[in-house]
Design goal:
globular; mainly alpha
């Protein structure tokens, strides 16, 4: 796991009350028991944890029951890139 995936695993472990060592890159949000409220909560947690802003439409496409930890890591990384200024 890369650093973003490790951070996500910790965040998901805390949110879903699952052992972090059982959350791997291929773990889906459905595996963790995600429902629609969890999707909204995850969006807010990702924004806070990674200091990014997520458009509701982008969140609806990315934060789905089928999304894996690796999918979310790529999404977070892409959002960080979009918000970067230099």
């Amino acid at each position: 796991m890369n650093d973003v995936e490790k951070k996500l695993a910790k965040l998901l472990s805390d949110h879903f009350a699952q052992p972090a060592e059982e959350i791997v890159t291929g773990t889906t949000m459905q595996d963790l028991g995600m429902d629609s409220l969890d999707g909204v909560e995850l969006m807010m947690l990702l924004e806070e944890e990674f200091a990014i802003e997520i458009d509701d439409g982008a969140a609806a496409e990315a934060i789905t029951p089928e999304a894996t930890v690796a999918d979310l890591a790529r999404f977070v990384t892409s959002q960080k890139g979009e918000g970067a200024t230099s």
